[in-house]
């Protein structure tokens, strides 16, 4: 359930006022959503100034489009769609900016750590599956047994008849492949950002 579900009526009145250009209504909407949105942006970009910059860009866009806001539609979805587009803009800018590109690469590597959490959530299995299928057959098998089925390296070693150190090596190399996939397919980073808002 949405955090704002109990305030639907009040929110609708605020949005109607915002659509008429009411600055007080804009400030109320900002107070309602900015904190959580900033928190999620910060989790993604790991940089306060970047998160703040994107946050301000999002609300500038909201104000610029205030007259076209439909109070009968989900404002939360509308807001997060704008935020998603702004993050895309950041990644596009990163492609031209070496310093920013290095920062985004570090972020993507850190975000990989959340993939293992997503593996246990079946609804995201198809997305992760694309990355896993990049692995060689035996590495896929080891990754699935260890990471998706939760088996220990010792169990998998006995099951497949290969050493624990070989299992470990496969897991390390699997992680490298998946991190590269995450960076090269920036939609995954966007996905993680959007999922964190649900």
Biggest sheet statistics: none
Return the CATH architecture of the largest domain: Orthogonal Bundle
Q: CATH topology of the largest domain, which one?
A: Rna Polymerase Sigma Factor, Chain: A
Average the pLDDT over all residues and give the rounded result: 76
Q: Helix proportion of residues, in percent?
A: over 70%
- Poorly predicted runs: 1-7, 118-124, 191-198
Strand content: under 5%
The CATH class of the largest domain is Mainly Alpha
Tell the overall outline. elongated
From the alpha carbons, calculate the radius of gyration and give it in angstroms.
Answer: 21 Å
Distance between termini? Answer: 9 Å
Q: Which structural class best describes the helix and strand composition?
A: mainly alpha
What count of domains describes the coordinates?
2
């Amino acid at each position: 359930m949405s955090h704002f579900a109990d305030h639907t009526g009040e929110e609708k009145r605020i949005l109607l006022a915002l659509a008429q250009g009411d600055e007080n209504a804009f400030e109320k909407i900002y107070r309602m959503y900015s904190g959580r949105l900033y928190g999620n942006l910060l989790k993604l970009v790991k940089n306060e100034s970047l998160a703040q910059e994107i946050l301000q860009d999002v609300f500038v866009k909201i104000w610029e489009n205030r007259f076209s806001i439909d109070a009968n539609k989900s404002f939360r979805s509308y807001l997060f769609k704008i935020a998603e587009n702004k993050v895309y803009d950041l990644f596009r800018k990163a492609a031209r900016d070496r310093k920013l590109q290095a920062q985004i690469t570090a972020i993507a590597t850190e975000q990989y750590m959340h993939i293992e959490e997503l593996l246990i959530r079946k609804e995201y299995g198809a997305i992760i599956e694309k990355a896993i299928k990049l692995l060689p057959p035996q590495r896929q098998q080891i990754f699935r047994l260890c990471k998706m089925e939760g088996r220990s390296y010792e169990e998998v070693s006995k099951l497949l008849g290969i050493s624990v150190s070989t299992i470990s090596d496969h897991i390390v190399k699997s992680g490298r492949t998946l991190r590269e996939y995450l960076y090269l397919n920036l939609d995954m980073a966007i996905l993680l950002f959007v999922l964190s808002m649900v």
